[in-house]
Design a protein that fits this description.
This protein is α/β, with parallel strands linked by helices. It contains 17 helices and eleven strands.
């Protein structure tokens, strides 16, 4: 079997429910040993988020937690207590990377900021994924995902005026921040290989959104003077076609940003006479002013075909229209199966569960999912006793004192 990309690296993960765990998930599925540190009793907040397996609320059945924490080890440790921080610092002495998503003020109060940690372990890479980063006027502000999306600019393009803008679902800011944190950490590993020194990877989820996802907004303002992006219900002022249209058995997403793509689609539908009308030549006005009118002209072509039939015809002509599937259909997609994107891992209390893999495949260092998400504190004895050398009698005392 080929080696794993991060084989031999030890990662300590502190924080939840999404940003740090998603960052750590990339590392655990690429072969790193990821030790997840959770508060005793309650655990990672993600354990209390639904949906739950079988609709039975339980901290060991949270779909979010199960998805975010495959291949990881779980220990419980109260680092708000002095004794807990001492154990945590001992653990970091044996680690290569710390991934955390706590507030800068909190980490500084615990003396777990990069300055203190670097003095104790100069090779340690500290990856912080926070809403607003460790510098700047917002660094100590609390935030939910909707706040981060707003500052990062994503909500500008979603929703229908004059109503309020909408936020994207499923913790997109935290997920994007976690992904950026993982990618930046890979670069930090390469740097440490050359210099022998760890570094602080400081990720602001708001900056990630503003940097990676707002290019079209900036270009529309620079070249067209368009200030507001919520011009139509689908959330953009792009060129027609853009949005969802009904097919015989469901919906298609139609988007042809390049003129050549639109012309190829018109060929596909038989170069209809109406397409020669100047009214249907300005694709920006078609999208923003009378999209429904053009949708109605194209509706017979879509309604005569299933999603897959329309998709195949468009693919042949390199027109980027795509079928819209629900979760069940996606799980059975031939493309998903061919890529091996879903894989099973089993735990005695849940049975086998299918998990999504990574969005890329490496030929020489493939990702893997061979362990389901851990039970709360499942690896306490392995880490504290075998790795740190703490006697079992001391572990009993620490448990009684609520430290582990």
């Amino acid at each position: 079997m080929p080696g794993e990309l991060l084989q031999g690296l030890r990662v300590v993960e502190l924080g939840g429910p999404v940003a740090a765990p998603f960052c750590g998930r990339f590392m655990s599925t690429l072969g790193a040993e990821v030790i997840k540190v959770e508060p005793p009793g309650s655990g990672d907040p993600a354990r209390h988020y639904g949906p739950f397996l079988g609709d039975i609320p339980h901290p060991e059945r949270s779909g979010l937690f199960l998805a975010m924490n495959v291949n990881k080890k779980s220990i419980t440790l109260d680092i708000s207590k002095h004794e807990g921080r001492k154990l945590f610092q001992q653990l970091l002495q044996k680690a290569d990377i710390l991934v955390e998503s706590n507030t800068p003020k909190q980490m500084e109060g615990w003396e777990l900021d990069f300055h203190h940690l670097h003095e104790a372990n100069p090779r340690l890479i500290v990856t912080s994924v926070t809403p607003y980063g460790w510098t700047g006027p917002y660094r100590d502000y609390k935030a939910y995902d909707i706040n981060v999306q707003s500052l990062g600019g994503m909500v500008e393009g979603l929703g229908r005026p004059p109503r309020e803008p909408l936020a994207y679902p499923f913790s997109q800011a935290a997920l994007q921040g976690g992904l950026a944190g993982a990618c930046a950490t890979f670069v930090a590993i390469l740097q440490r290989d050359q210099t022998g020194e760890g570094t602080h990877v400081d990720i602001s989820s708001a900056e990630v959104l503003a940097t990676l996802h707002l290019g079209v907004y900036a270009l529309n303002y620079m070249f067209l003077g368009v200030k507001a992006m919520r011009g139509i219900i689908v959330g953009s002022r792009l060129t027609y076609p853009v949005g969802f249209t009904k097919a015989k058995d469901g919906y298609m997403y139609a988007n042809a940003p390049q003129l050549a793509q639109w012309l190829k689609f018109l060929e596909l539908v038989g170069n209809p006479e109406w397409a020669k009308n100047p009214r249907y030549r300005d694709r920006r006005k078609m999208a923003s002013d009378y999209k429904g009118e053009v949708d109605a002209l194209l509706a017979p072509w879509f309604m005569a075909r299933t999603r897959d039939e329309a998709f195949e015809e468009c693919q042949e002509r390199r027109v980027p229209f795509a079928p819209v599937y629900d979760i069940g259909e996606s799980m059975e997609s031939p493309q998903i199966k061919a890529r091996g994107f879903l894989t099973e891992a089993e735990r005695s209390d849940t049975g086998p569960i299918r998990y999504p893999g990574l969005p890329m495949r490496f030929s020489e260092t493939p990702w893997r999912i061979d362990h389901a998400a851990p039970l709360l504190g499942e690896h306490n004895e392995e880490v504290f006793n075998q790795m740190l050398g703490i006697k079992k009698t001391h572990l009993v005392q620490l448990r009684e004192e609520g430290i582990i």
